[in-house]
From TrEMBL:
Family affiliation: Belongs to the TRAP transporter large permease family.
Organism of origin: Melaminivora suipulveris
Name of the protein in its database record: TRAP transporter large permease protein
Complex and partners: The complex comprises the extracytoplasmic solute receptor protein and the two transmembrane proteins.
Source superkingdom: Bacteria
GO cellular component term of the entry, any: plasma membrane
MF terms (GO), sorted A to Z: transmembrane transporter activity
Keyword Coiled coil among UniProt keywords: no
TM spans (from-to): 55-73, 85-108, 114-131, 143-166, 172-198, 246-265, 277-301, 321-348, 360-381, 401-426
InterPro entries xref list: DctM (IPR010656), TRAP_DctM (IPR004681)
UniProt keyword Transferase present: no
Subcellular location: Cell inner membrane
Entry membrane topology: Multi-pass membrane protein
Purpose: Part of the tripartite ATP-independent periplasmic (TRAP) transport system.
Length: 432
């Protein structure tokens, strides 16, 4: 009865427009209070305890730092220099600017690890360039939004950090390594339909008439941005610092590049950068902490075991259960952000992973890849909202283009499901 009330309260609050984090926390608190009606006040002490426990995890310290890195590199002009360098390599022509947008977004994923941050940084540069070359605004927004979705796969990744906190045995270095090849595969899968659509519909005809940046000059200007993933990921691999410490190193590296090298960030710019990063980090961490209350209520009320038994005993085989989970996550991804999906569903899926003995690192990659698809799948796609706003395009104008890109990344996800070694070979090779 109380378990039913838990989900009814959560869904009702969401439909009333209550923010997802508050809905999770309020529903969990009500359920805990009712479950301990004989000693209500002692039971409700679990609410603040679990709120604090949701935040008191060392790996979560990396989240505000990587969010800050994204804000710093957004304002430092690194994205523009990377775009010029990529154009100097692939040249001009129909379909080349979308290819550059995807490549640069993938590379930015090795710096910030946040999809919306990359959508803003790359979109601010690429959407205007694509508009000048004759690409429709809806198409440009779709390409940038889908490309930015690869960022939660390519390390460093905020999503993998949250997953490591929720699932024992899933280390951050192993998840970072496991996300590399699937992230690249997802990006390559987007390039094919993006270029094909551009050439089929005669987009970018003005692109061929634009000047091609000189290679060596572009390389020199982009060198500091190109070195950022090497510093971040290389330092972790060499054992110089942990993933959490790497986030702090990345912040100081970004400030050095922006304030000393390119001089695009001034002292007076630091306050809006810190404020922007602080607001976004606060949203993420408050949702994480409130979800801890919801997860505690799930375990206290004994909801997880019956749900697990119902799925396992549904008559579906192992492949059918996995397909059901993926379809459910894809649908949820259309309406919820990735962090919220993890916080709600991972506690329910952990016993299923244990029952079928799925590799927790591989399943984490599949989960994050599924969430990445949801970040640019209408109607409530966070990346698509950011890029559409920059392009001044309505969400409806992106649908005819973005569904091709959704289908392409779904094929990449199916490949990772069918061949787990795409994700697991690199962690095994590196000894994680």
């Amino acid at each position: 009865m109380i378990a039913t009330l838990l989900f009814v309260a959560f869904l009702s609050l969401m439909f009333l427009g209550v923010p997802i984090g508050a809905a999770l926390g309020l529903a969990g608190a009500v359920a805990i209070g009712l479950a301990n009606s004989e000693a209500q006040w002692f039971g409700l002490l679990a609410v603040p305890q679990n709120f604090y426990a949701g935040l008191g995890k060392y790996p979560l310290l990396a989240i505000p730092m990587f969010v800050l890195v994204g804000s710093i590199f957004d304002r430092s002009g690194v994205a523009l220099r990377l775009v010029n360098f990529a154009v100097s390599i692939v040249g001009r022509g129909p379909g080349m600017l979308p290819l550059v947008a995807i490549a640069v977004a993938m590379f930015m994923g090795g710096i910030s690890g946040s999809g919306p941050a990359t959508a803003a940084a790359v979109g601010g540069v690429m959407i205007a360039a694509m508009a000048r070359a004759g690409y429709p605004a809806g198409y440009s927004a779709s390409v940038v939004a889908s490309a930015a979705a690869t960022d939660i796969l390519i390390p460093p990744s905020v999503a993998f950090i949250v997953y490591s906190v929720l699932v024992p045995g899933a280390s951050v270095p192993a998840l970072f390594a496991a996300g590399m090849f699937p992230g690249v595969l997802a990006g390559l899968s987007l390039i094919i339909p993006a270029v094909w659509l551009a050439r089929r519909h005669g987009m970018g005809k003005l692109e061929a008439g634009l000047a091609r940046p000189p290679f060596w000059r572009s390389l020199r200007e982009a060198s500091w941005g190109l070195a950022a993933p090497v510093v971040i990921l290389g330092g972790m691999r060499m054992g110089w610092f942990t993933p959490t410490e790497a986030a702090v190193v990345a912040v100081f590296y970004g400030l050095f590049v922006g304030m000393v090298v390119h001089r695009t960030i001034r002292v007076r710019d630091l306050f809006p950068i810190l404020r922007e990063a602080g607001e976004l980090s606060a949203v993420i961490l408050v949702v994480v902490s409130l979800a801890g209350i919801f997860a505690f209520s799930l375990s206290t009320l004994g909801v997880i075991d019956p749900v697990t038994r119902a799925i396992v005993e549904s008559g579906l085989n192992e492949s059918g259960v996995l397909a059901l989970i993926i379809v459910l996550l894809l649908i949820m991804g259309m309406f919820l952000d990735g962090i919220s999906i993890m916080l709600i569903f991972v506690p329910l899926m952990a016993p299923i992973m244990a029952h079928y003995q799925w590799d927790v690192v591989w399943f984490g990659v599949v989960l994050v890849l599924t969430i990445a698809i949801g970040q640019f799948t209408p109607p409530m796609a966070v990346n698509l909202m950011v890029s559409a706003k920059i392009a001044q395009a309505r969400m409806e104008a992106t649908t005819r283009w973005v569904l091709w890109l959704v289908a392409a990344m779904c094929l990449a996800m199916i490949a990772v499901v069918a061949w787990p070694q795409i994700a697991l070979w690199l962690p095994a090779r590196l000894g994680y």
